[in-house]
Amino acid sequence: MIQGLSLPLLLGVFALAGAIVVAVSIRATTLADIIADRTRLGEALAGGVLLGGATSLSGVVVSVTGAAGGDASFAVSNAVGGIAVQTLFLAIADLLHRRVNLEHAAAEPANLFQAVMLLILLSLPIAGMAGPDIAYFGVSPVSIVMFLAYLWGVRLSAAVSESPMWRPVETRDTRRDEPDDENDPDAPVLRPALVFAALVAVMGLAGWVISQVGGAFITRFGLTSSLVGALITAVITSLPELVTTLVAVRRGSLQLAVGGIIGGNTFDTLFLVFSDVAYREGSIYQAVGQTDLYWLATGMLMTAILLGGLILRQREGPARIGIESVLLMVVYACAVAVELFAPD
To answer: Positions of the region Disordered (predicted)?
Structure first.
């Protein structure tokens, strides 16, 4: 039905679905902060698991729908392109957080560990692409390892958050993870959790609509799957991460902002696992092209730069933002330029 719409209606549906995802994500950010306080989960872990997973759901639907339709490049580029642009969002948030470098103020061991875990998870698909073409029931062993590694990493992240073996140096600009004064930590958590789950379902439905419109762009206008996946659907489905990051920074929940991006990116690696299951023509890692591998490398490079910034904890840099934020902008701009202008 969506495939047959005229171009104005197609763009209208695309914009409406994106607007719904953004609006719902604003409310989800507030609820994630409430749930973090009432369950004593902590902002970093809540951002990484609850908020990161919820805001990534629309992107999951896009990648899985593309993989089920046989378009491996679209599924993979949507996933890894989303990781790159979401990392860029932290640089944008750093621009708006004028007081001090965001990565300095949001010092948190759990965020550092999740960044390391993200690099590990991003390295596994490269092994699947470069290694032998092995698949059991259409699923690569790499996907199984990634899924188990993610579960183990979440468990370890919780341990790091609850009982850290080291703590960052406290400065006057360090933002501690403390419950909001207006949020009673002993209040019931059931109602906000149910509302949060309902919002997640809405984001999933909007993601399906976005995937259908993205497929229409590919077939109707002859655009490459990697371009649509990395620069159109990935950006649209990643807007919740931008909104939730900016809202969290404005609320002063800096660990939630950084943890939401890193945790969301970590969850986004599961796009590849779910897409591999949905892709029925063999291992999805063996079906992608060089452009998809390029975006995967870009995501790894940007994550490594972010991790370096979190460890360095520079107070001020160019234009009062961290040097890592400047580098993130440069790397992403170069990646987009290569996607748009490099010869096939």
So the answer is: 167-186
- The backbone torsions φ and ψ at residue 136, rounded to the nearest 5 degrees and listed phi first, read -115, 120
What pLDDT score does 310 carry?
82
Q: Which residues contact 55 (CB under 8 A, 6 or more apart)?
A: 25, 28, 203, 240, 241, 244, 260, 264
- Up-side HSE of residue 1: CA atoms within 13 Å toward CB? 3
Q: Higher-confidence residue: 132 or 170?
A: 132
285: CB partners within 8 A, 6+ apart = 125, 128, 129, 140, 142, 272, 276
CATH 1.20.1420.30 fits 2-164+188-341, yes or no: yes
CA angle (110, 112, 118) in 5-degree steps: 100
* Per-residue model confidence as pLDDT tens digits over 64-73: 999 999 999 9
Please identify which residue in the block is written with the tokens 């439905």: 205
- How does DSSP classify residue 137? T
The contacts found for 154-157 with CB under 8 angstroms, 24 or more apart, are 154/48, 154/49, 156/113, 156/117, 157/45, 157/48, 157/49, 157/110, 157/113, 157/114, 157/117
